[in-house]
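A protein record pairs a chain with a discrete description of its three-dimensional fold. The following entry can be read in just this way.
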Amino acid sequence: MPSSVRTTVVEMPPWTGARRRLGYVYRRRYLSRIAARIFLTDHCISEADPELADRYPDRPVAHEVEQVLALVTLAGGSTLTDRLVLGIGEDDREFARARVPAGSIALNLAPRWFAANFGFEATSTLVRRLASMQRDVIVTYGNDVPDAAARLRDAVSAPNVTWLSGLPLLHWAAALARCSVVVTVDTGATHVASAVGVPVVTVFEREYFRLSSQEWAPWRVPSSILCKPPVGAAPDTLIDDIVAAAGRLSTSSTQAR
């Protein structure tokens, strides 16, 4: 994103008329840091910089939850919690009980599964491999991949795979809560699963892996963090790793319940 656009975001808070205006800016985005001094009353400096994360691998990057809590502290908050919470209601749970067998493996589809460094055929293979584990599989997806999901559904004929699309947030969260593990690329599914206490297998992009896998990691749940292969490399090893991690976490989750 161009620096001018990033700076404009910092300039927006004064328009609200709020007496205190808080935010954080990245250490090396110098124009944004100057703008923050002008337009914000208080701000934090974030170390979530891709180049710094790669340059200094021994320097941990704070999780986004911790960065947000730093702003709460800056605002004067004294009672803090790092729990992720979603207000799932009984109607959401009823929907999930009717549609999702307890202990299912969930796979959340998103555009990054179908990118050049994984692809449609690899995703088809992954669904089949998960279905072959003798567990129910729930495939969820939104309106960002309807065509790819329809093709995938036609390509995968397994009686133990259920396809759920376009769910309201809390129905989706309740559905994931019924599962023993959630498999996803780097999307909101990681954090929804974390909020409902379900183990997660998250596949991050190779670009900015060191940063993303720390800042956006599954929060306080058992997890496995994997990396996409380079473009042109066969995805077979990654598929094996996903299936192995899903099986391990699913078994541990089921035993714990």
